[in-house]
């Protein structure tokens, strides 16, 4: 027995060092894999910034509106106080001439316009805010007046009357009112769509773009075209080009008069969650990269229409009988704060230089924009007229997705370089994007998967002097103040990010943001 024990001891003496060596080797492998390193090679430069679609409340902007003058200065001030926190870097302000200044045509068919009416004054209130806060405005039309039922047969985007009256309106806003925050013009919404006033008519749209560009030059307006403003993933059988080809042909045929390239996407949630959103839109960004011009999402949103998620979404419909079929009822829930931010982060990782969320406020639009209070487009961060329209003050409260979207607007500054991790393939379902401008830096992280990630994070943040505020959005809770604005939960040392010693634990389906940017 003693001899057998000695043999066992000898074997153990040989095995233990081997086990120790294996453990050290495995530990080294784990440590190597568990450090996420942000690249120093930017995926894009001169970032425009993220923002929102903000329309001028066509149903509640004047005593003559369908709802009357409900969007009062007091209501607007509440919206602006929330935007003061969000700090959108771009605003897409779309309109219809007939909602504002177009008052029909005279006996000769010439447009009658009024730039001093109450409806135009509402637009000016929005522009006052954008001008004061240095927000880049993309202004445009949802469609020509005839398409919206207004008399006068101004029903093509290449109608000289449409071009002339619009340029007169823009001259009033920019030259007389001084709104040089207006940088880009969109001649019509989603021109490739079956629902558009152009119904995919490329030649009509192309002529219109060229006519506007010439008109801006003649009028001395420092405006550029934002185009094509198409739903890139939608193909119209009536059009000679697919959605992707509209993007390609805009670059080939019109690049000299386009200031930025702009597409829309309402992505299926599965398309976002499995990462296909980034892969698809990187192809679009790569096509346009040679132009050196910004590539943005004029509208972006997420849909829950298919599979199990679609079945679960249907259960929400009876809860909001005032919501039209064009609504996103998950805006009331935690989940949309993750999926919308996931799409936004993937867009930045793909090389897009900004995106505006559809949309800011439920009080802006109804189906067909007919003003039916029971057909609201529920997509917003709140409904400013929840009390007046629905007798429900809670509808006016800030919704969960404000937390993630506002941080992505507030802390990714215009002019930043945007960076991806070097080794993100080691972290499936983890989305990470970073921005840096001088010594200002922001890092957004989102765990799209069902498992917790624990790892170290390393980035050249430029300086070890300024520590980072850390914000977290998790299913178990997230910190906000008395205004429902995000509050940082902790502080990270810049030197730990520089050295790769910052340890992160990110829960399933959650979001974190690191920033050293101080904003008053």
- Which band does the percent of strand residues land in? 15-25%
Largest sheet: 8 strands, parallel, barrel
**Compute the gyration radius: what is it?**
26 Å
Gross geometry: globular
Arrangement of strands in the largest sheet: 2-3-6-7-8-9-10-11
Query: Count of DSSP helices?
Result: 13
Distance between termini? 79 Å
Kindly report the average pLDDT value.
94
Weakly predicted, low-confidence segments: 19-33
Instruction: Tell me roughly what share of residues is in helical segments.
Output: 25-40%
Tell me how many strands there are.
19
How would you classify the helix and strand content by structural class? alpha/beta
Structure, described:
With 520 residues, this protein is of the alpha/beta class. The longest helix is centred in the first third of the chain and has 32 residues, at 2-33. It has an eight-stranded parallel beta barrel with strand order 2-3-6-7-8-9-10-11, surrounded by six helices. The chain has a six-stranded antiparallel beta sheet with strand order 12-13-14-19-16-17. Strands 1-15-18 form a three-stranded mixed beta sheet. The radius of gyration is 26 Å and the shape is globular. The N and C termini lie far apart (79 Å). Helix 4 packs parallel to helix 5 (202-219) and helix 8 (276-288) packs parallel to helix 10. The chain has helices spanning 2-33, 73-86, 118-132, 160-176, 202-219, 243-254, 269-273, 276-288, 307-314, 334-349, 386-390, 401-410, 494-499, and strands at 35-37, 51-53, 90-95, 102-105, 111-113, 136-141, 182-186, 224-231, 258-268, 295-303, 355-357, 417-419, 430-437, 440-447, 453-458, 468-473, 490-492, 502-506, 510-515.
